[in-house]
Amino acid sequence: MEWYLALALMLGTVCLIMFIGLPVALAFFAANVLGTYLFISGDIGLVMMPMEFNNAFKFTFAPIALFLLMGEILLQTGVAFKAIGAIDRMISRVPGRLSVVSIVGGTIFSSLSGSTIANTAILGSVLLPDMIKRGYQPTIAMGPIMAVGGIAMLIPPSALAVLLASLAEQSVAQLLIAGIVPGILMAVCFFAYVIIRCSFNPKLAPSYDPDESDLDEPVSLTINLGGKPKLHWSYKGKYRRSINRVLPFLLYILPLFIIFIVVVGSIFFKIASPAESAALGVLSALGACYFFKLFKNIIKITGIDGADFTWRAITKSLMETAKINTMILFIIAGSLVFSQALSNSGATDGLLRQVLAMEMTSLTVVVMMMLVLLFLGAFMDQVSMLLLTLPFFLFGASSLQAIFQIDVIWLMVLMLITMEISLLTPPFGLLLYVMKGVAPFNVTLGQVVGSAIPFILIELAILVLLIAFPTLALWLPSFIN
After folding, report:
1. Residue 309, SS3 per DSSP
2. Cα–Cα dist 106/455, whole Å
3. Where are the beta strands (DSSP E) in 185-275?
4. How many other CB atoms sit within 10 Å of the CB of residue 298?
5. Within 13 Å and on the Cβ side, how many CA atoms surround 142?
6. Do 189 and 196 form a contact (C-beta atoms < 8 A)?
7. How far apart (Å, rounded) are the C-alpha atoms in residues 429 and 250?
8. How far is CA 437 from CA 81, 121, 379, in A?
């Protein structure tokens, strides 16, 4: 069979099955049965197919489950919601105040959860109702929440980055570190856009005086031992407003920064491998949640509530992590066999020969890859498009570097950003529907899409900037070579 017919058969099978609504894993398995039978020794290939599934259970995939667990712990114990409240109290009078809160809060939570959907759902459910109530226009209310949700794909711990690097057999540590600068740069651009646009058009986000009556309350500290107050201290001086504003930030946000430092610092300074740093992150999240529990049972501070650090919350975190991770492992197993079948059919080599015959430059090749991802992203979820294109985009580090002179870490950062953009692209951008799900019933899907467009343009500008200046992505990873 000609390589292009084999390619059309395999890709067509996957796309057709996903189009009729079956899960991604089943789509890959169906294509695998067909491809394995046709291209890998018929019946013998089908017998050998389950043996290929063992490749999905590599130690390199361990950080995915651990990073997911870390985010679930912070979510189920309520720590994430407390952090957003602390940020809300810190940011006072700026144009588009609540939109700024969503960007800052979303960036911080991105650095802890690695879950784009969780990021958008939490910020949307917590902040969007208040925004709509105060007259915020959809463009400036929903847009920042969806856009900053995609930063979770870049800033470590990013489960998708771990998956991409592991499947491509590249350094997980370097890719995680490479996403930091682009992620922060994107957050800064979102921040600047909201401030500038709301300054020129205040009607987008009507100003209001936030209720700060609780800031005038005396700062009090009570320590309970054995169920009885043992120490009580109260401060009523003129600096009580400043203390009441800063104290929640110090007690809710700084411990979360410590988690980020533990995860990223242990990788950056080569103290631990990505899997070990993910385990340290889980332990740090548990420690932070237990620390917050003290404010519920022992220590009472004005304006500070404890976390719901219970066995029930931890059990639910483990259950949710197991559900998501099981789905990911099934998809990984299916995609690995899919790549093997494509390779045996000659489709991968045939496509590479065709690209070489066109004598394209490395820049043209990269741009074509990004355009394909943007197109697929309008119809597929990110894991599906990643696993579908990986056999073609990453033929192997040696091929890309030797033939096209493309740095693979840089290419993978571009792929993550492009997939982040595709989360917002209509008609089927995943975050568009997550936002529609948490938005008030009177918000239309058209308004959701319209609010995403300015931020899609910003993300495209960042993508072009990284294509023009690869150093932005490769500078930090160069320190851990």
Report:
1. coil
2. 15
3. 219-225, 228-235
4. 15
5. 27
6. no
7. 36
8. 19, 8, 18
Core vs surface per residue 214-249: b (16+ CB within 10 A) or e: ebeeebeeeeeeeeeeeeeeeeeeeebeebbbebbb
Q: Which residues pair with 107 in a beta bridge?
A: none
Q: What is the helix (H) or strand (E) element at residue 139, kind and residue range? A: helix 138-149
Cβ-based neighbours of 469, under 8 Å, separated by 6 or more: none
| Whether 65 contacts 321, CB under 8 Å | yes
- The residues, ordered by sequence, that sit 6+ positions from 254 with a Cβ below 8 Å of its Cβ are none
List the beta strands (DSSP E) in 168-227: 219-225
Q: What is the pLDDT of residue 193?
A: 93
Give the other-Cβ count within 10 Å of 156's Cβ: 32
Q: Does the pTM of the predicted model rise above 0.85?
A: no
Nearest-angstrom CA–CA distance, 374 and 107: 23
Backbone angles phi, psi at 205, to 5 degrees: -140, 85
pLDDT of residue 397: 46
Lookup result for tokens 């105040």: 97
Q: What is the dihedral of CA 7, 12, 18, 24, to 10 degrees?
A: -20
Q: What is the pLDDT of residue 51?
A: 54
For residue 373, give both structure tokens. Answer: 């991802």
Residue 141: pLDDT over 90: no
Rounded distance between C-alpha atoms, residue 154 and residue 420, angstroms? 8
Provide the residue type at 20 as one letter.
I
- How far apart CA 358 and CA 329 sit, in angstroms, is 37
**pLDDT, tens digit, 9 for 90 and up, residues 347-359:** 777 776 777 777 7
Beta pairing class for 219-225 and 228-235: antiparallel
Token pair of 115 as six digits: 């879950």
Write the DSSP symbol of residue 18: H
- C-alpha radius of gyration, the chain, whole number: 24
Q: Is 265 or 398 the better-scoring residue by pLDDT?
A: 265
Burial 180-199 (b: 16+ CB within 10 A, else e): bbbbebbbebbbebbbebbe
Mean pLDDT of the region 289-299: 72
Amino acid letter at 388? L
Q: pLDDT per residue over 54-90, tens digit each? A: 655 677 778 888 888 888 888 788 777 777 777 877 7
What is the layout of strands, in order, in the sheet containing 228-235?
Answer: 228-235, 219-225, 299-301
Between 400 and 66, the higher pLDDT residue? 66
Q: Which residues touch 441 (CB under 8 Å, ≥6 apart)?
A: none
Identify the three-state secondary structure at position 207: coil
